[in-house]
Structures are given as C-alpha cells and as structure tokens.
Amino acid sequence: MNLEDLRAAQTRERATDGLQELRDSFYGDVAAYIADLKEQREAAASAADDPFGDPEVQELTDKIETAEQVAEAIYERRMGKLVKQASLAAAGMPDDVEGLTEEERALYGDLVERIEANKSHVLDVISGDAEPSSTDLDDAASEPLGDTADETPTDPAPEPSGEDSSAAAAMGGGLDDADEEPTPEPDAAEDAPESDQVPADPEPPEAAADDLERVTGDDAADDEQDAADSEDDVSRTKVRVTDDVGEIFGVDERPYTLEAEDVVTLPEENAKPLVEKDAAEKLD
C-alpha cells in the first residue's frame, strides 16, 4: 500500500455507481501504511538538527495528511452507496455488494436488519396492530405543570418609617398632605407675557371668503370674472353653456372647461362659434 494506490482507489470509486471491489483488509492496510510513515517521520525528526524545518520531515507529514484525507473520502463515498444497497435489500430487491471490506460487511448486515425491523413496525402501526413510538419529550409535554402560584412569596409593601415620612415632608411630599386637595396651578397662557402668547386665529380675509364663494358657485364668481376681464384688452361675451363642450383654450391663452348650464364670460372669438353651433347662448 502506498499513496498512489490510495489515489487510484479514490478515482475508481468516483467513476462507478456501484461499489468497487476492495480486499477485506483494505482499511487495515491503509492504517499500516500511515503508521509506517509516522515511524519514518519520527526517525527523520530525531536525526534532524531542526525537526520543524527539515524537508524530509515536512514531506512525510504531507504524505500522512494526504493519505488520511484520501482514505476518509473513499470511505464516505462508499457509505452512501452501501446505505442505498441496504435499503434495496430490505425492500426485497436484488443488491450488489460484492467486494465489501470486513468492516463494511458488518455494517451492511446491521443496516439491513434495522431497516427491515423498522419497516415492519411502521406497517403494523398503519394497520393498527401496534402503537406509535412515543418519546420522552411527548411524555414530559403531557405532564401538568405544577401550581407555582402559591410558591411565589407575596411580601406586603413595607410601611414608611417615621424617618422616611419626615424626609418626604421636608421635600413637600409628606403623608399629611395626601388628603389635601392640590392647589390648582395658574393658567400658563394667562400668566405668560404678551410676546409669548399665541394669538387666536384671525377671521378669514375677504379674499378667502371670495374663494369660498367661488367654490360654492355664488354669483360673486361672475362678478370677479367680469372684473378680471376688464383688465385685459380681449373683447368678451357672457354666455350660458347649453351643451357639454369640455375644455377649450381661449384666445386669451386661458383654459376653460365648459359644461351644460355653466355661465361664463368668454373671449368673443371663442364665444361666437359656440353660439352659432347652439352650444351656448349669449346673456348680454
């Protein structure tokens, strides 16, 4: 056995879906090989002036670590295949477990027996011939919790001593003051200087009142529109819209949304086509 043999076994195990045939003493041979490398390293370290920096000691250490890693990788890959074969055998299907080592053969037989026993138990539970397995955790969860309310001490609150009472009284919080009604504090707003007082909300200005009137559709809106019209040089005509026209853009570069029964003052150039099409009628 040497490192090249281990690497070749690892390559074959990776290349096949089944278990490659290994001799019964495979893992024992690996152990003997690693033990021999350790003896060589110990001898080389004893003969070297600097065991930690000696090249031969370092080379042997690398071989030992590599051999251990390769052997572990071979075992783990074979265990996955071994469990699969054991489940097939427990299900009554043909299996192929030729070439097992001595250690693997013992594990394989134990796995098959355990899988078969577990399968039989589960089938009995399903058919009602056996009780499901219970765990200690389930038993513990089913036990009632102890009544710990009576075990909790409920010490009464200590009464204040005379010394504490006098100290509280000195700080304005004595026991004698508990029954007295608290003196109402003066209104901060009344005592505050005039510069700090917040003035009441003023009445809405006339401009705001006019805005409200325009929202509610009062006649004042028409008056304001007429006043605004007088400020420009565009000739205007007051009309009542008789049909839903929608939005138009006036020659005064203003948008107008016209709906039936609206009374609005429009530039004359915009009002004239509407009147001609019976979409509006002049009020002037």
| Percentage of residues in helical conformation | 40-55%
Low-pLDDT ranges: 135-141, 144-154, 160-184, 186-205, 215-221
Strand fraction: 5-15%
- Our count of helices gives 10
CATH secondary-structure class of the domain at 3-127: Mainly Alpha
Shape: elongated
State Rg: 51 Å
Count every beta strand, where a strand is a DSSP E run of 2 or more residues.
5
> Cα distance, first to last residue?
120 Å
Write out the strand line-up for the largest beta sheet, numbering strands in chain order: 4-1-5
Name the average pLDDT: 74
Under the CATH scheme, the architecture of the domain at 3-127 is: Up-down Bundle
Helical/strand content category? mainly alpha
Order of helices and strands: HHHHHHHHHEEEEHE
CATH fold naming of the domain at 3-127: Methane Monooxygenase Hydroxylase, Chain G, domain 1
Strand count, sense and barrel status of the largest sheet are:
3 strands, antiparallel
Would you spell out the secondary-structure blueprint of this structure?
Elements: H1 3-15, H2 26-47, H3 55-90, H4 102-127, H5 136-142, H6 162-170, H7 188-191, H8 206-216, H9 220-229, E1 236-241, E2 246-249, E3 255-258, E4 263-267, H10 268-276, E5 280-282
Antiparallel strand pairs: 1-4, 1-5, 2-3
